[in-house]
Automatic annotation (TrEMBL):
Subcellular location: Cell membrane; Cytoplasm, Cytosol; Lipid droplet; Membrane, Caveola
Phylogenetic classification of the source organism: Eukaryota, Metazoa, Chordata, Craniata, Vertebrata
GO BP terms, alphabetized: cholesterol metabolic process; triglyceride catabolic process
Pathway the protein takes part in: Lipid metabolism; Glycerolipid metabolism; triacylglycerol degradation
Domain Alpha/beta hydrolase fold-3 positions: 350-498, 669-740
Family: Belongs to the 'GDXG' lipolytic enzyme family.
Organism, as annotated: Lates calcarifer
Protein name: Hormone-sensitive lipase
Gene Ontology cellular component list: caveola; cytosol; lipid droplet
Presence of keyword Lipid metabolism: yes
Known partners and oligomeric status: Monomer and homodimer. Interacts with CAVIN1 in the adipocyte cytoplasm. Interacts with PLIN5.
Positions annotated as active site in the UniProt record: S428
Enzyme Commission number, as recorded: 3.1.1.23, 3.1.1.79
Amino acid sequence: MDTKAVFAALYSVCEENATFFSGGAKGSQGDAARRLVDAMKLIQEHARSLEPVISGFAAVYHHFDFDPHIPANGYRSLVKVVRCCLLHIIHKGRYITANRRSIFFRVAHNAGEMEAYCNALCQLRALLYLAQRMLHDNSHGNLFFHDESGLSESFVREYSSMHKGCFYGRCLGFQFTPAIRPCLQTIAIGLVAFGENYRRHQSGIGVAASSFFTSGKYAIDPELRGAEFERITQNLDVHFWKTFWNITETEVLSSLASMTSTQVKVNRALSVPPVPFDLPLAANHRASVTIAPPSAHIGTAPVQMRLISYDLREGQDSETLLSLSRSEGGAISLSLGLKTKRLPSSPCLLVHFHGGGFVAQTSKSHEPYLKSWSQDLGVPILSVDYSLAPEAPFPRALEECFYAYCWALRNHHLLGWTGEKICLAGDSAGGNLCVTTSLRAAAFGVRMPDGIVAAYPATLLTAYASPSRLLTLMDPLLPLSVLSRCLSAYAGNEPQTEKQVEKVSTLSLVRRDTALLLRDFRQGASNWIHSLLDPNRASPSPSTAAETPPGATDAVRKSISEASISSPHADPPVPAEPSEFPTRKLSVKSQTCQDLGSHSSTSHSAPLLSERTPEDVNFFLSKDADPSISSDLSSVAIPPPAGEEGLELEHPREFPLGFEPLRSEQLAEMRVQSSPVVKDPFCSPLLAPDSMLKGLPPVHIVACALDPMLDDSVMFAKRLRSIDQPVTLCVVDDLPHGFLSLSQEFAPSSLRRTRPRSHASTESWKGPIGACRPLLGRSLLFLLGLKLLMGRA
C-alpha cells in the first residue's frame, strides 16, 4: 500500500467511526464514545500534518542508503515506523467498524487502544520534525550530526522531557514482527516488576517471588506498565541494568538454557594466567613482539574464556588445557571416562566477543546460539568473558580481548585448531570489540584475523545525533537513557559502586517479604477483578508515575548522554596533551596506544594516536555539495529555529507553532558531556583515520532496520567502502537490537537476496512481517557471513 493509499484509508476509517460514535449515547458508554471520537479526530489532525512530511522523506531518503541495493538508513526507519503505526490504527479502526454493533463490543477498551496509538503518533510526529532538522544539517549522505551543540543537545533535551510511556504500554513493540512482540511484552513486564522490587529485598528469592506476584498488575494494566517502564529507564542507574541483564546468568535459567540448547562435546570455562609471551610479526616471522597481559584499571588478572566445540578434537582434552579449566559448579562438560571419538583439528577457529552494553552478561548468556554455530559451522568457538564496566572501563575489555586473540594464535594446538583461518564475531558491544581488536592487532603488527562478522555493532560511542538514534525514544530494549549510561560506564564516567542497602535480619526479611507478597497479590488480584467488572475503570494518565520504592531515590544518579560530540574536524580523536584526558586515575597505564619502539629492531612501530593530526580522520564522507541532492533535501529539511529579533535563545523552540509533543513528569536529567575517551578510535572505530581502517580484514555486518544503532553500521560500511576495503552489509527487517539473544532458532519461510553491482561485496536480506520466527543463533545471515569468510560456504 503506497503512502497516498495509507492516508486515504486512515481518513476514511477514522471519519466513519467518528460519525458513528457521535450519536450522543449517555452514561459511561457515552463518555467512552466521546473519548473514541476525540481520538479519531486527533489522529486525522496528526495525519494531515504527517502526510506531506512522509511523502517528502520518501523522495529523498535514498540519498543516504549504503547503495541502491541496500535500502537502509535512519530516515527510512523513521518513515517505516510511522507507516507501521498508521497501519495499526487502520487495522484497529476496521475492527471497530466490523464489531461496534456487537453486544460484546467494549467501547472503553477500544477507546483506550486508539488513544494509545494517537499518543504514539503524536510523538512520532515530533521525531519527524527533528529528522527534518537533521536533513538540513546532515546533507550529502552523512547520517550523523557533527557538532557538540545545537541539534545533538536539542535531541537529548527533548528526550528527557518527552512522554515515552505510550510506547511501552499498549503499543509495545508495534514496529516489530508480531512473532517477537510476546517476547518483548514478557521482558517489559519482568523489567517493571523487577524494578519495583529492586533494593527492596536482599535475597534473590524475595526479589523473584515479589516480582512474580506483582507482574500480574502490569500484565493487565498496560498504562501502568508504560508509566513504570518510563520511570525505571529514566531514573535507575547502570547497576540496576547490570543486575537485570545478568538474570540470564543465574544457575536456574542458565541450566534450563543449557538443557534446551544443542548438546556439544566440549564446553569448558578457561582461566588463562596473565603471562607475557611473544608472537611473530605478520610481516617478518623471524621477528617477534611481546604481548603483555591486560593491566588497565584493575591490574593483572587471569583472562576468562570459554571453549565450545560440537565435536571433540585433537588437543581439547590435553592435560595443559584441562589445567586451565575453571569450575562453574555445574555438570562436567567433557567426560574423559567415555570413549568419545576424537576428530582432527579444525582448519578454522571462531573467536567470539559477547554483547551486553560493555556492562553485563558473559559467554554463558550466549551459549545457546554459540553451540548451534559450532554444530552448523563444524568449528570450535572461543568466547571471551572480558571484564565489564563500570568496574573495568575502557580499555580493559579491549586489552583482554586482544590478549585472548593472541593467546589463541599461540596455543592453537590446545583449541582443536590447525592455526589456518581465524575469524572474529560479536554482537553490539562485541561487534565493537571485534573491530577494535583487529585495529590493535594491526598496530602491534601481529597476524590479522581472516574476517570479522559483527551484528548491529556500536561503532560510534559519542552522542552524535542521527535519525536512527531518534528511535531510542520508543525502543524497548535500547532507550537513550539506558544507552547513555552504558556508554558512560565504558568511558569511565559512571560510579563503580552503588549505595548499599541497609542490612536487616533474616527474620525481619522473611516477615517483610511475606507481607509484601500478600499485599502485592491482593493488589494484583483486585486490579484484575475490577478490570473485568468495570471496563471503564480510569487508567493512569501518561504522566502518572508509580511510587518510587523505598531507598531508590537516594540511589538515583544523574545520567549523562553518550559522551562528547565535538567534531573530529575540529579536534583530534584524542588530545595531544596527556593532561587533557579525564581526571579519573588509571591503576595501571593502558597499553592500548603503547609505542612499540622497544621492538624497533624487529618490528614496525605504530604511531601514537596523539601524534595523528585531525586531517587523518575522514569521518564525514562527502564535502562538496551536489546541487541536485541539495535541491531535493531543501524541500523537506527544516532550518534551525532562530531566536526572537535576531537573538539566539538558550533553548529555542524545536517544533512549529501549534504543535507540542506530549510531555512527561518522569524527567531525566541528561546532558551532553565531553569526554576524549569516546573519541579514541579504539573506542569509536568510526572515528578512526583511513590509515587505520585500511588494515582491517573483510568485514561482514548484520544490521537491523529498526535498530537505533543502524546508522552506526551504515556509516561504518560507507567508510570501509570509500577506502576500497571489502565489506558486506546485510539488513534484516522487523527485528530489534539484540535479536541474537531473544530466541534459539530462525526459520524464515521466504528470503530475498539481492546482489548489487558494486566493487564492495554487499547483500540485502528481507523477510515479510509475520513470515519468520525471531532471528537467532541459527541466523542464516550470521552463519552465511561466517561461512563466506571461512571459505566454507
